[in-house]
Amino acid sequence: MGYKKFDEQDLAYLKELIRDEERVLAGNEINEEYSHDELSGTSSYPDVVIKVKSAGEISEIMKYAGKHRIPVTPRGAGTGLVGASVAMEHGIMVDTTLMNHILELDEDNLTITVEPGVLLMELAAYVEEHDLFYPPDPGEKSATIGGNISTNAGGMRAVKYGVTRDYVMGLEVVLPDGKITWFGGKVVKNSSGYDLKDLMIGSEGTLGFITKAILKLLPLPKKIISLLVPFPSLQKAIDTVPEIIRSKALPTAVEFMQREVIEDAEEYLGKSFPDKQSDAYLLLKFDGNTTEEVERLYDRVARLCLEQGALDVLISDTEEREESIWKARGAFLEAIKGSTTYMDEVDMVVPRSHVNEMVTYLHSIQKEVEIRIKSFGHAGDGNLHAYVLRDGLSDEVWEQRMHEAMEKIYQKARKLGGQVSGEHGIGFAKKPYLKESLPEASLRLMNGIKKVFDPENILNPHKISEE
């Protein structure tokens, strides 16, 4: 049985339900941005966009959609990169960006409760004002917390602090049948049956709507210092990463970058990078409560880098230098996008011990496939971002070469014990590669879980492993 075609009667019901015409968009009122996410390779318009303000509104929408079998697509800021928030079956798109309130800061339990539309940068700034710290640090600071949870976003601080999953303690969720429930809570330990909260994290809006989140906080580190380490070659830089991890002087972040990507960022930002002496760099960040503690950590790693052949170790101990380095790193995605006509992205993750082999492989296949590939990534946690660039290729040649490059990259990642996505998710765009990567039993279980939560398959259909 297919989905009901959305009609004027459905629109009239939703307008009556919301009673605010500015929050119900249909036809020409729907902005083109609602048809795609950040990469825009997957495109489909919803029939209606509803800017919700409460779990209650979402509950009523889901009840109506379930009764009439109308597909519903959750949407945050739309900064995803795999088409997870694109309405593949049209229908109703539920925009949660107006649910953007910080509800409670509980300093006794070191938690904060927020609505899903709160932006990552707003959350980080708010808790820092209270000398607290929310460690997950994805590159897109204008993403919503709901989106971060839905993709289990990682970011640069994962080396030391882990990913979004490690900081989600409880979730209020609207299920596909409209019921509002809670998974988890403020307890630190919980061995009470299946962990339904963890099922929601990374489920990309396919199992339920996240309407509140209780997040774990840490005391704010008092001192942060970065090292920018130029190497004579990318191989030398990447080969040093396992040595840094083995040293146990654990950095907050270990990033690798190359001159060609830095130049894109310089052009995009209109600002010079603070160092010009090399084609390959490691960027390391250290944090702690005292200058002495941080210096003790980075001194050991600085010596190790020099022993491994680093050309220099530049200490970023001023706010100005720190900002110039990390602002360039934060601009890499947009800068690469601006350097070509179109691009597609690979967000594979491999064991940390194989980062060097994977990066070397990415560079080697450019000539083989005859396509440009630029890469950077979280070398300390094995999550590498490779961007396949279209440039001036025709539609036919682009499709053929892009898919060939993707197949080769994912195949190599699998051989190294890696996975399709480290932090961006699967959505619609990466489904074929997930199917090649996972055992049939795993895919069957995933689809079975989807059917238990959403037997009518109305919530975000055609995402992850579901056809």
TrEMBL record:
Q: Which Gene3D superfamilies match?
A: 3.30.465.10, 3.30.70.2190, 3.30.70.2740, Uridine Diphospho-n-acetylenolpyruvylglucosamine Reductase, domain 2, Vanillyl-alcohol Oxidase, Chain A, domain 4
SUPFAM superfamilies to which the protein is assigned, alphabetical: FAD-binding/transporter-associated domain-like (SSF56176), FAD-linked oxidases, C-terminal domain (SSF55103)
Q: Where does the FAD-binding PCMH-type domain lie?
A: 42-220
Please give the InterPro entries that the UniProt record associates with this protein: FAD-bd_oxidored_4_C (IPR004113), FAD-bd_PCMH (IPR016166), FAD-bd_PCMH-like_sf (IPR036318), FAD-bd_PCMH_sub1 (IPR016167), FAD-bd_PCMH_sub2 (IPR016169), FAD-linked_Oxase-like_C (IPR016164), FAD-linked_OxidoTrans_Type4 (IPR051914), Oxid_FAD_bind_N (IPR006094)
Q: Which keywords label this protein?
A: FAD, Flavoprotein, Oxidoreductase
**Source organism, top-level taxon:** Bacteria
Q: Which cofactor does it need?
A: FAD
- Coiled coil (UniProt feature): none
- Which Gene Ontology molecular function entries are recorded, alphabetically? FAD binding; oxidoreductase activity
The record's annotation in PANTHER family points to:
GLYCOLATE OXIDASE SUBUNIT GLCD
Please give the name of this protein: FAD-binding protein
